[in-house]
Amino acid sequence: MPSELLHLPPLYTLVGLYRLVTDPSIRKPVLDKVKHASVRGIVVAGIYTVVSWNTLDWFVRHFLVDGSGGIFAFLKHGKAGLTQDGAEGVVRVGLWKLGVDVNVVLYTHLLILLPQLSSILRFFVYKNLKLARSRAYALTVSSRGKPHEFWSQGYIEEWAEPPRSRSGELDRNGRRVRADTQWISWLLWWPTQLVLRKYLFLPLSPTLPLLAPLLTSFLRAITTGEYLHQPYFDMKGMDNDEIWKWVEERKWAYRAFGFAAALLERMPIVGLFLSISNRIGAAMWAFDLEKRQHLFANNILHPLQPSQVGFYGMGRVDDLGVDIQKAEDEIDKKFSKKKVSRGGGDGDGGDEAILEIRGQGLGAGEKGREKVL
Fold it and tell me: InterPro entries attached here (predicted)?
């Protein structure tokens, strides 16, 4: 990928989606893993929608949008809820001129139904989806055609004055806990999310529940970005202090990428499958970051002074004094000449995969780690 893309981290989520859609060498083996389970889940979700529609419609009309006591009763717009003769009102959903009038019963119905359908589909694809995510990452890395030596050079410091880790609490994996982790975890706790969406945001404005994923994704941003690069850190053999330092130096890059990835995964139903493309995007970003690491390892680039690090912690493409693209092409040629045999050594094995992900891949909102072997 062009070096300039490193300075636009959220675009890697679109790169991942593009490769998933257009690259059959990745798309077919990945989607084959979830195809049959997805069909079963969609069928069950469709049956559930038909069977529960009237019941949920009755619940919405009598308990949520009833003009006398429903959650829209005090909006004072004069259009929300049900009128005295039972006619349905509308709510304005959206911001400013982009807003549209939507039937209040249908809107509330869908706010409740779509997360339920996502949960049903998730139940059927959960196990295979985790494997598909891991497969997507492994196939993307292997498609770059680089040997193990390219990925395993270890941590190379890119800052002349790197951040110093402060003493503090460690999690169960031995990582440093950031100062804001506790209150963010409380806000992301599912009962808190339920109260905020259904009993605070929705009564205040019909648009706020649609904006809730923005807040949640912002809070998850840096942990999501760091989590999606865990396989990369494992390949490099980085310890917990090096991971902390790496992410701290690029914290706004990881926040930007993590926000975009978490927001895509928060979308009902399709977010389950976008979590696969997020893995591909994370692998593509890791590849570009590793090419940059080789530039520092070979003294083509030198550690950045504090005035050079920039917003994303990686300086600017046009102020480093070298032709970055030309230097990266040389690195690419150097390692592309090496072929990897089935046994993992140098040889004429050609297109064999250079790594294998064992275990189950996890999504941005799930606990646990992956191990790349």
Answer: Spore_wall_assembly (IPR052786)
